[in-house]
């Protein structure tokens, strides 16, 4: 029997606005699609939050015993600087500025994306398709939508006819908008616009001669509209209707609304049963974003090299910080919040270390099976990681009391406690306990302190050749010594 048969998972469905019991289309299997990054710059911590929320969701679904096919794409074409189908392709623009090939931009930032996610201990998705690898599928969907009469061609571009679509279907049902209101609130189209209505969006755009990223099509050379790739890739790998589609809240409109419209227009039915939206990471109370410069890179957090930080933080501490908030809540990043998470993370890891050597007794004071179920109840309630963490700390409290001899635990309960902590801390939350690297850094500290002591002795013997040699050679290795009133300290770059 699989765990999912014992546990009732509820998911907040953005489409209905309700928390619903999760029922996959095929028993025991889950198809999940998450919009991936547009690889034109380094991934910032805000992007990482959304992907981490879905990594945790992927992990919990797997933990429950589901066979999950998790598709997270790479957007390497079609995402324009301006969301209203105008302006340059973000990747082509970067390539022009850096005087490199668009595919060099894609390669550089795809590698960065994977490297960062790896440091955060993400599980790789089952399939990571690219937009440029699915041009043929995208052309196929455009043809279908044209045949059904929900798109029109103008001068080598193809646009989705939102008004026509809205006569039979409901454009705006995901974001809770009404087409009439959208029309009332938009200005008239500029005279040069090819669109019939401002709400229409591009399925295919004609490539001007200077546009490098171009593919042949029945309407001439061009490139696909941004929303289309996700419809093409999700349909190809998960089917016309699949279980879960996720992304950041900011993608709900227009991106996901357009995905629904494209799927319904081409095959007549709704593509997704559960729409899930992760909330934003903010900094100084404002959304973290590439475009505004209000962002921080994961590397800056790991090295501590950013003015808002007093020190570096490890990937696991940052991951713990993220998991302390529910994925649908806004989370604000600050040095104080990270310091508090670091304390909590160490308290949890110390308890895990102590757990191994806990003495056992004939009786337990703490009802472990009940506590274990509370951990599941938290996760079953729309992946409520902050409540789960509160229960884990309840476990920590008892571990500490047992260690101090103030409470007791049986052998069997100790095994269950250990298994539950391992399941939730490492498998579901994806935290890592890097004792080896902690030990390494303790060793490094000891060695450098010894060298500082030898350098001080050399200096007091006026042996400056030796003292300088120690300082310079450490510096060449990236270890800087700093002499101050309180003595010599060091930093590692
Ligand atoms: P992009 O690379 O811009 O297409 O964004 C990739 C993902 O990051 C999308 O799912 C966005 O919704 C998400 N995202 C962007 N900014 C933030 C933020 N400040 N907090 C959380 N997620 C974000
Ligand atoms: Zn998408």
UniProtKB/TrEMBL annotation:
Motif 'HIGH' region mapped to chain: 37-47
Superkingdom in the source lineage: Bacteria
SMART domains recorded: DALR_2
CDD domains to which the protein is assigned, alphabetical: CysRS_core
Its EC number(s): 6.1.1.16
GO biological-process terms attached to the record: cysteinyl-tRNA aminoacylation
Co-factor binding comment: Binds 1 zinc ion per subunit.
Protein name in UniProt: Cysteine--tRNA ligase
UniProt lineage: Bacteria, Pseudomonadati, Bacteroidota, Flavobacteriia, Flavobacteriales
């Amino acid at each position: 029997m699989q765990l999912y048969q014992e546990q009732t998972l509820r998911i907040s469905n953005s489409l209905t606005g309700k928390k619903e019991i999760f029922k996959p289309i095929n028993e025991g299997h889950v198809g999940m699609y998450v919009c991936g990054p547009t690889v034109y710059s380094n991934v910032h911590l805000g992007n990482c939050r959304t992907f981490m929320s879905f990594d945790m969701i992927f992990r919990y679904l797997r933990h429950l015993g589901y066979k999950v096919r998790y598709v997270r794409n790479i957007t390497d074409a079609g995402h324009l600087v301006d969301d209203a189908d105008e302006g340059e392709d973000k990747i082509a623009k970067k390539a022009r500025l850096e005087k490199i090939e668009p595919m060099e931009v894609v390669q550089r930032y795809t590698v960065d994306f994977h490297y960062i996610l790896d440091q955060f201990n993400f599980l790789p998705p089952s399939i990571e398709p690219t937009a440029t690898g699915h041009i043929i599928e995208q052309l196929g969907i455009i043809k279908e939508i044209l045949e059904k009469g929900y798109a029109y061609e103008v001068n080598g571009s193809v646009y989705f006819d939102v008004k026509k679509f809205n006569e039979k279907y409901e454009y705006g049902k995901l974001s809770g908008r009404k087409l009439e209101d959208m029309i009332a609130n938009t200005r008239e189209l500029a005279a040069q616009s090819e669109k019939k209505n401002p709400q229409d969006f591009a399925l295919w755009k004609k490539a001007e001669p200077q546009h490098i990223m171009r593919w042949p099509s029945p309407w001439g050379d061009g490139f696909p509209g941004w929303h289309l790739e996700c419809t093409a890739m999700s349909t190809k790998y998960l089917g016309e209707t699949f279980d879960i589609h996720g992304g950041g809240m900011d993608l709900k409109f227009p991106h996901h609304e357009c995905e629904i419209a494209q799927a319904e227009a081409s095959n007549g039915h709704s593509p997704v049963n559960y729409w899930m939206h992760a909330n934003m990471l903010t900094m100084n109370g404002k959304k973290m974003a590439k475009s505004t410069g209000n962002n921080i890179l994961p590397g800056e957090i790991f090295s501590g090299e950013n003015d808002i930080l007093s020190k570096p933080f490890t990937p696991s501490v940052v991951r713990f910080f993220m998991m302390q908030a529910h994925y649908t809540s806004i989370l604000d990043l600050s040095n104080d919040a990270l310091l508090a998470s670091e304390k909590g993370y160490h308290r949890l890891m110390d308890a895990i270390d102590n757990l191994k050597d806990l003495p056992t007794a004939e009786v337990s004071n703490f009802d472990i099976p009940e506590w274990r179920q509370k951990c599941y109840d938290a996760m079953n309630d729309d992946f409520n990681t902050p409540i789960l963490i509160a229960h884990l700390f309840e476990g920590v409290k008892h571990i500490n009391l047992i260690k101090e001899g103030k409470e007791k635990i049986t052998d069997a309960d100790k095994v269950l406690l250990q298994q539950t902590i391992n399941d939730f801390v490492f498998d579901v939350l994806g935290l890592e306990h890097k004792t080896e690297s902690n030990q390494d850094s303790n060793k490094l500290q000891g060695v450098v302190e010894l060298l500082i002591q030898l350098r001080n002795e050399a200096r007091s013997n006026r042996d400056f050749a030796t003292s300088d040699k120690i300082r310079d050679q450490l510096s060449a290795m990236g270890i800087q010594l700093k002499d101050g009133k309180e003595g010599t300290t060091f930093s590692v770059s």
